């Protein structure tokens, strides 16, 4: 089940404070927002359009492990040490998003513990959902006949 948007996961007062700390940005099709291994300093909530998340797989080309669209958060590595990107992100078409500076968001969380709790709860749910979907995608792409070979052997 997909996660809700960050803006619906926080209380209304927190939503207002989040929006005040963000800015609207747009990126044309084919834009690389970030690469796997980059230092993470910004994050985005997609308002329209979509992007693909890609991972380097040794001996293969970049592999798409997910697609994100409106309401989805990308760049969450900016909030979690060591603040290094786990995937690359590339726009599919025009992408519009609310952009946050990670240091500014950390300051906001320090000043508002209930908002910080809501953001981190949302973040944990998002990361868990992405882990499940990425695992499934990798099994579909690299598992024999789309299944986990360990389960087939048993």
Structure description:
The chain is of the alpha+beta class and 154 residues long. 38% of the residues lie in helices and 26% in strands. It contains five helices and eight strands; from the N terminus they run ααββββββββααα. It has helices at residues 6-9, 12-20, 102-111, 113-142, 149-153; strands at 22-27, 32-34, 42-48, 51-55, 63-68, 73-74, 88-91, 95-101. The strands form two sheets. Strands 1-8-3-6 form a four-stranded antiparallel beta sheet. Strands 2-7-4-5 form a four-stranded antiparallel beta sheet. The longest helix is centred in the last third of the chain and has 30 residues, at 113-142. The chain is globular and about 50 Å long. 24% of the residues are buried. The model is unreliable at 147-154 (pLDDT under 50).
Topology:
Elements: H1 6-9, H2 12-20, E1 22-27, E2 32-34, E3 42-48, E4 51-55, E5 63-68, E6 73-74, E7 88-91, E8 95-101, H3 102-111, H4 113-142, H5 149-153
Helix pairs in contact: 3-4
Brief description of this entry?
By secondary structure, the protein is of the alpha+beta class. 38% of the residues lie in helices and 26% in strands. It has five helices and eight strands.
């Amino acid at each position: 089940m997909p996660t809700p948007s960050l803006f619906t996961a926080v209380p209304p007062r927190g939503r207002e404070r989040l929006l005040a700390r963000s800015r609207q940005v747009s990126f044309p099709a084919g834009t690389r927002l970030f690469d796997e291994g980059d230092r993470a300093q910004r994050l985005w909530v997609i308002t329209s359009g979509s992007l693909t998340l890609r991972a380097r797989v040794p001996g293969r080309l970049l592999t798409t492990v997910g697609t994100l669209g409106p309401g989805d958060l990308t760049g969450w590595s900016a909030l979690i040490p060591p603040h290094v990107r786990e995937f690359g992100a590339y726009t599919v078409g025009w992408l519009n998003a609310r952009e946050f500076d990670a240091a500014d968001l950390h300051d906001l969380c320090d000043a508002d513990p209930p908002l910080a709790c809501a953001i981190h709860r949302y973040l944990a749910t998002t990361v868990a959902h992405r882990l499940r979907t990425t695992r499934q995608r990798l099994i579909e792409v690299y598992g024999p006949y789309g299944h986990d070979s360990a389960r087939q052997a048993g």
